[in-house]
Amino acid sequence: MDTLTGSIAAALQLMLGADPMLLGIIGLSLRVSLVAVLIATVIGAPIGAAVAVGRFRGRRAAIVTMNGLMGLPPVVVGLLVYLLLSRAGPLGSLGLLFTPGAMIIAQAILITPIIAALTRQIVEDAWSEYRELLVSLRATPWQAARTLLWDTRYALSTVVLAGLGRAMAEVGAVMIVGGNIDGVTRVMTTTIALETSKGDLPLALALGLILILVVMLLNAAAFATREWAVRKYG
Amino acid sequence: MADAIIATPLLRVDNLGYASGATRIIGGVSFALNAGSRTVVLGANGAGKSVLMRLLHGLLPLASGRVEWFAPNGRPVVQAMVFQRAVMLRRSALANVLYALTLSHIPPTDHGARAFEALRRAGLEELAERPARVLSGGEQQRLALARAWAIRPDVLFLDEPTASLDPAATRDVETAILGIEQDGTKIVMTTHNLGQARRLADEILFVDEGTVTEHTPAAEFFRQPRSPEAAQFMEGELP
Amino acid sequence: MMLRRTFALYLLALVGAIVLPAHAQDKFIVVASTTSTEQSGLFGHLLPAFEQKSGIKVRVVAVGTGQALDLGRRGDADVVFVHDEGAEKKYLDEGFGVKRFPVMYNDFVLIGPTGDPAKIAGGKDIVEALKKISAAQAAFVSRGDKSGTHAAELHYWKLAGIDPAGAKGTWYRDTGSGMGPALNTASSMNAYVLADRGTWLSFRNRAELAVLVQGDPRLFNQYGVMLVNPDRHPHVKQESGQQFIDWLISPEGQQAIGSCKTGGEQLFFPNSVASHKPEFRNAQSPAKQ
Lengths: 234, 239, 289
Fold this sequence. Notes:
- The structure holds three protein chains of three kinds.
- Chain A is mainly alpha-helical.
- Helix content of chain A is about 80%, strand content about 0%.
- Chain C is α/β, with parallel strands linked by helices.
- Chain C is about 40% helix and about 25% strand.
- Chain C has helices at about 1-20, 35-40, 40-55, 65-75, 85-95, 125-135, 150-160, 180-190, 195-200, 240-250, 250-260; strands at about 30-35, 55-65, 80, 95-115, 140, 170-175, 190-195, 210-215, 220-230, 260, 265, 270.
- Chains A and C meet through helix 2, helix 5 and helix 9 of A and helix 1, strand 2 and helix 8 of C.
């Protein structure tokens, strides 16, 4: 309990102090995770919609696979991406290891199944409502998938936020592929891990509280945007 | 049961069949429909009216038989359907109509004008920018009709279109249906409401337990149905 | 259609933003080092001076010695800076390094609970202390992560004639973790643990732990630096890497190392120049495989 109150005080102090290093770390966390979620959505949402609307052999296997990949262990993804991007690996010449680019790739791989699987569920539920209308209008499966993605946009925004939360929270993958390099690849979660391992638990906890606060603010902003959009566009 | 051969029909159905699992739902249905007359499909609950409509419109796969369309000048027949509960896309009323147009054969340059005209005819021009999902049941049904009219269908299927509406809304919808028919669309409609059937039908298709027991001009049907099943149905129904 | 084209352009820009390294203009090298140098604050103290002088940014990836040398083998680092002489010699023999330069040393200390069930406090003999811990079956935390510290620890057990592997799961706790986490574990378990003095000095979560045994000449811990062999990995930044190494062993670098203090105590002792022989130098180096 002492640690907690002390940490809350430390967190407030850190935030009000606007320490440039802290701001840089928060900024990098946001940049890496937001870009990763964007990539994951661009890839995962159409895949989810296609599986929801399509009728093909192996569809059930695809659904089970997507759902299962939601549980990909971040540290394993980190290791696999590391082996890919290492100079001794196939993509080593890209020179991406230990850069934010590698962290974005690792997080995108982690988040894409989440976006795809949840999109699939949402679009499939909508499909049961919209199917007769869309078939009546002679929409092709691709047209139907696109239409459903747009019509379920509010539910999908929650999916994207879930993906963002997962990305901001993970430490295993970014630690391995980023190397936690001071000023280059150090994000909130790896800083917390570092301070914990240095035994500075109050500071680690304070940073943790700040991280939670940042994610909460993102969610609040998304919620407000959605409310406004619903009111304006329905 | 069999109909006389009709010259230049719009739709010919031959030995149509549909089953769900082991249960036969539609069997041995054959008839032909002409353009230019309003066909109302009557029958008891569970007789198979809705399934028949969906088979004709292509929403369900045929288990057996054939559905043949005959277009005015060889081009593909354009169909539309309005359901008991209208499905609205999550966008404005105008955008809903435009959406149907983008999937249709109407040239893109005409879409804007056509969409506005469709709303106007349905009495919805004030609500063009309103989100379609917040419209009342009657307004949504009129919007569905506007959506259908906009693509200039050769045939419009309607499955119990006013079943969930109050009398005033029902009247508005019936007016819209007549308007669509004026512009050259064949109307095929199911209904529970005998009064509506009397008002709108030119001919009756009576469905009983998955078969069509008669295909009769409306005036004659309401005087005296030809088939015993239809007679029984009319006797049991409220006037 | 327009929408799709703009979307495709956005996507292309996005991919470009990720794949093209952002600050490719800045000169930088990647140095694989150990957690003891990073967490003790040495690099925080050292690197700004080097960066200002040379204009080369140093990116430190701080992992255990074993992993650091592996980074060097794979060519993922330009320079390795670790503290396990045996492993470093093996690395050189394998041809992954160019030349090894000694840089600095610190010492290991045996940390334990103030309660001290094995009664070793104040001792100056690491081997005797380990024998007592084994006899008392007192809780002992091992890093178990192929780090320099772990290698040293195993060496001391060997000198004591004890094989702790048999006691895994009872009083010998093999945690497979870095120095900080191992200290955290020891602190919450009230266990003994071998640590490097630098990490201990900056460790905050001490609870009831304290330094119990120190000063044994065998606790000497030498750090060495090597350039990753450009013959094996042509992309290695030879020139910048060598600049860093040269600076570390230069009087300026050595002075910077020496001036790094925590709570008034010096963390590391520079010894790259032959004349700077530390008092421990004559004793047997502990990290022999």
